[in-house]
Amino acid sequence: MTSRKRFWAILLCVCLMFTLAACTPKPAEPQGNTDPSQGTQGNEQPTTGPQTGGKLTVAVSNLFADYGYAPRISNNAALMQAWAAYESLLTTDANGNDVPLLATKWESNPSEPSITFYLREGVKFSDGEPFNAAAVQRNMEEYASINRSELANIESYEIINDYTIKLHQKAWSSADLHTIGFYVLFTSPKALQNVDSIKDRSAGTGPFMIKSFESGVRIVYEKNPNYWQEGKPYLDELEFVLIADASAMSSAFRAKDIEAAFATTFVAGDTISSGCAAQIRSGEVVSEKNSNGLVAVGRGLIFDSSNSNSPFSDARVRRAVAWGLDEELLNNAIFQGQQMWTDQFALPGQASYNDSMKKVGYDVEKAKALLAEAGYPNGFNTVITGAPSDQTMITAVANSLKEIGINAEVTVVDTATFNSVLVSGVFDGIYVFPYTMGDMAFYMNKVFSATPTSFKAAIPNTPVLIDQVKKLFAAGSDADKVKVEKEMEEMLFGEDGYFFWDPMTVMSPTFFKISALHDDQALQTSQWKAVWADAWLEQ
Amino acid sequence: MNKKKKKITDSRFVRVILARKSVVFCLIVLIVTLLISIFADQVAPYGYDDQDYTSILQGASSKHLLGTDVLGRDILSRLIYGGRVSFSVGALTVVMASIIGIALGLVAGVAGGTISAVIMRTIDAISAVPTTIMSLFVTAILGRGIVNMCIAIAITLVPSYCRITRSQVLSIRNADYVVAGTLAGNNRTLNTIKHILPNTISLNIVMITMNIGAAIMCESTLSFLGMGVNPPMPSWGSMVNDGYTYLERLPLMAIIPGVYIMIVVLCFNIVGDAVRDALDPKLKGTLADARTKKRNRMKAEAASAAAAAGAEE
Amino acid sequence: MKGKQVRKILKRVLQSLITIVLLTVILFLLMQLIPGNPIINFLGSNATDEEIAYYTHLYGYDLPVWQQYVNWIKSMFDGTMGFSVSLQRNVSEIIFSRIGVTLTLVTWAFIVSVILGVAFGIIAALNRGKAVDTVISILSNAGIAMPVFWIGIILILIFAIRLGICPSYGYTPISKGLGPWFRGIVLPVTVLSFPSISIFARQTRSSMLDVINQDYVMTAKSKGVKKRDIIFKHQLRNALVPLLTIIVNRFAQMMGATVLTENIFTLPGMGSLMINSINSRDLQLFVDCILVIAVFVTVANLIVDILYGFIDPRTKE
Question: What is the pTM of this model?
Answer without folding.
Answer: 0.80
